[in-house]
Write a structure and sequence with these properties.
Strand content: 5-15%
Number of domains: 1
Shape: globular
Structural class: alpha+beta
Distance between the termini: 27 Å
Largest sheet: 3 strands, antiparallel
Strand order of the largest sheet: 1-3-2
Number of helices: 5
Radius of gyration: 13 Å
Order of helices and strands: HHHEHHEE
Helix content: 40-55%
CATH class: Mainly Alpha
Number of strands: 3
CATH topology: Arc Repressor Mutant, subunit A
Length: about 90
């Protein structure tokens, strides 16, 4: 499979705001915070939302299941992951 085919397949699996609608309120809040902030760590999300880290982790897992977020390792600190919203508009 070529790189362009892989990209096309990944793009087809992106979530929409409709996928977020039935998620718990914490996941909706995290999605909105990520919408307004380009890329954030889990701790930054917890600080911004005032949610406990455990709740943020749960919300991120739910958003990941719906394919509405993108996560990658931080180049500055490989122990941390960076999260960003990945929704088709």
């Amino acid at each position: 499979m070529s790189a362009s085919e892989t990209f096309r397949q990944d793009a087809d699996q992106r979530g929409t705001w409709e996928d977020v609608r039935d998620l718990p309120p914490s996941a909706k809040l995290v999605a909105k915070v990520l919408e307004y902030n380009d890329t954030m760590t889990q701790q930054q999300i917890a600080d911004e939302t005032l949610l406990p880290s455990r709740t943020v982790r749960y919300a991120l897992n739910r958003l990941d299941e719906e394919n509405v977020i993108d996560s990658r390792f931080s180049f500055s600190d490989a122990r941390k992951r960076l999260y960003s919203l990945d929704i088709d508009s």
